[in-house]
Every structure is written in C-alpha cells, then in structure tokens.
Sequence to fold (262 residues):
Amino acid sequence: MVLETEGREVWIKEYFLKNSDLDYSAAQSKAVNKEGGFVSLTDFEPIPDPEPSFHQREEVDEVLNAGTDCNLAKYLKTKFDSELVDRALKRYGSGATNLFWENSTCFLQMDRGQNIRAGKVMLYSENNGRRVKEPYPHINWLHNKIVKEDGFNLSQCLFGLHLLDSKPVAIVESEKTAIVMSILSDNTTWMACGSKTAINEKMLEPLKSNKIVLFPDKGSAGEWQQRGEGLSSKGFNIQVSRFLENKVEFEDGKDIADLYLM
Fold:
C-alpha cells in the first residue's frame, strides 16, 4: 500500500517517497480531507542521513602492521619498480594487514578532510595478482573487527577522494586498478568506486567541478553510459570511455589495468 490513513487524512507513505524517483529532500506529503474533498500540500522535514563514522588513525596503524608487502604488492613489484609500488600504496593510504587473512590488502577510503570512512580488506594471489574468491570471496571491512561498540555507520566515499585537486578525475571500479593506473599516469587523479552500481550523484558530488572520465570494466559500458548521461543532466562534466568494448580479445569483466598486467 502506498497510502496510509491517520484519522480523517490520507498520507503517502514515507517509504514510497524514499524509493521513488522523487527528490526526497524536496518532497511533500499530501493530506486529503475525506469529508470535504479538500486537498492540501504540507511540507515536512526530510529524515537526515546519519552522520558517518570514522576510524581513528591510531587504530588503523595498529592493524596495518605488515608494511606494504601484502600479496598484491609482491605481485605488482614483478610488473613495476618496487619503489613506485610502495609509493603508490602509501599515497592511497593502503597496505598489508593480517587482520583477517595473512598478507591481505587494506584499502582505506578517506574523504577530502582526510577522515578515514572505511577500510576494505581483500586477499589477492601473490602469483597472479587476482582476488582470492575460493572457497569464498575474501573481502571484509575493518570496522567488523576493530570497532568495539555497535553503531558504526559505514558511509563510503570514492577510494582516492583524499587526493582530489584540479586535475581531471578518472574513475574505475577496482581499487587495485586505481593504484596501477596511478603508477602509469600522473596527469590524472585515479579513483575507484568499488562496484559498478556506485556511480551515482551522492558518490560523485565532491567531483562536480572537475572533469570526470569513467572507465568501466568491459561489459559495463552501457550501464555506466546511462548513469553518466543522468549525471551530465545534473551539471557534471562527465564522459564514459568505451575503449575496452572494442578489445575483442578481452572477456567481460576485464578492466583497463589488465592491458598493462598481461
């Protein structure tokens, strides 16, 4: 049911407004007087988003206890100069941790204020640099292990957002890919959204004054093109690269870093 009643009035349910295409922050509730047939519009205060939780630097440093030589770093050092790999990992606030799995990688999400909003932990193979997905996907979050009290509000931001400046921004899906591409290209700020569904207005709002180029994984260009067009209509300077779609030798799911890691 979209409508609910209260006394003599009929109201549009709040969940409908939240899940509709309406701008919820400017939405209005409709009150209908059943007896007189009078319809009025009544403004209501939108429910604010809960404040994001942050990790303290000290607690993060305690679990990033293995330096930068995680399995991913070891693999990347077979492809690039060791110093460049170490520098890129440190620049992105990432490194090794044994918190969940030995020699896994922790990717920190830091906003423009250098606040640590999240730490995504993933295990990679030292041999091929790919994520370990068997017998289960090896992915977890710092707050699941180091936050003692309940109520940590995970409010993600783009991986690499803390590096934002006046340069054009290139967005990929994978954190690993953002790090690889930052080694190869320093005239662009590379960021990662973490999943193909994370290309949305809220996530990209801090980049609105920058030129943005999206680099979707092969097979996702159509979806990202649609999302990019929607953002363009809202004032974003955004383009979508279809470069990988023309790579017939690439299977779906491959990304731009795979061009340099083959």
User: Anything to note?
Assistant: Residues 24-41 have pLDDT under 50 and may be disordered. The first helix runs from residue 14 to 19.
